[in-house]
Amino acid sequence: MPCVPNDASDRVAVRIVLDTNVVLSALLWRGTPYNLFQSIRQQEQVRLFTSAVLLEELAEVLIRPSPTKRLTIIGRTARDVLEDYFNVAEVVTPLATPSVIAADADDDHVIAAATESKADLIVSGDRHLLALGVYQGIRTLTPTDALARLGA
Fold first, then answer.
1. SS3 label, residue 139
2. Is 2 inside any structural domain?
3. What would the pLDDT profile of 72-83 be if each residue is shown by its tens digit?
4. CA gap 86, 82 in Å, rounded
5. Angle at alpha carbon of residue 72, lines to 70 and 73, rounded to 5°
6. Is 1 within a domain?
7. Is 3 within a domain?
8. Could you tell me if 78 and 42 are in contact, meaning their C-beta atoms sit under 8 angstroms apart?
9. Domain of 107: which CATH number?
10. Phi, psi of 139 (to 5 degrees)
11. How many domains does the chain have?
C-alpha cells in the first residue's frame, strides 16, 4: 500500500535518506535504485536528504575503477552524476554521529543524516542497516520495498 495518497490535497511529505550504495546504483545503472531515484525526483511530496560526509563518500566511490569504467560506458563524468544527485537532495549537517552500527561505523553517517533530517526512511542494500530495522522511528528498507512504499 502506497504511503503517499493520490489526492494532492492529502499528500504527506516523505523524507528519505539513501545509503551511498543505493545512490551509486541509481546514478550509474538502470534498475530498482534508478527507478526509486526517478520516483523521488517526480514526486513533490517526497524529499531526499544527504550530508556532506555522504556526498564525500559518494565522490570517493565514483573515482574507483569499476564506477569510472561505468561512467565511461554511459558517457558521463563523476561531476555530472554528482550534480544530478546534488540537484535533488537537500544537504543537512548532523550535529552528532551516533555510534549505532559497531560492525561498520560508516553506516552511522547514514543514520546521522536520517536523524538530522527527521527522515521517515533510510533506503539501503547494506545488511547492517537493514538488520537495524527501525532506529528512532526511522525505518530502513531495501530499494524494492521503498519503491513499493512510494507507490511507484
1. strand
2. no
3. 999 999 999 999
4. 6
5. 65
6. no
7. no
8. no
9. 3.40.50.1010
10. -85, 140
11. 1
What separation in angstroms does the CA of 116 have from each of 18, 112, 136, 138? 14, 6, 11, 11
Strand partners, 11: none
CA angle at 41 for the pair 64 and 38, rounded to the nearest 5°: 65
Give the cell for residue 89.
537532495
Asked if the model's pLDDT at residue 9 lies above 80, the reply is no
CA angle in degrees (0–180, nearest 5) for 61-64-70? 95
Kindly state whether residue 36 falls inside one of the protein's structural domains: yes
| Owning domain of residue 72 | 8-149
99-108 confidence digits (pLDDT tens): 787 667 688 9
What is d(CA 99, CA 105) in angstroms, rounded to the nearest whole number? 7
Average pLDDT of the chain to the nearest whole number: 90
Distance CA 138, CA 152 (A): 20
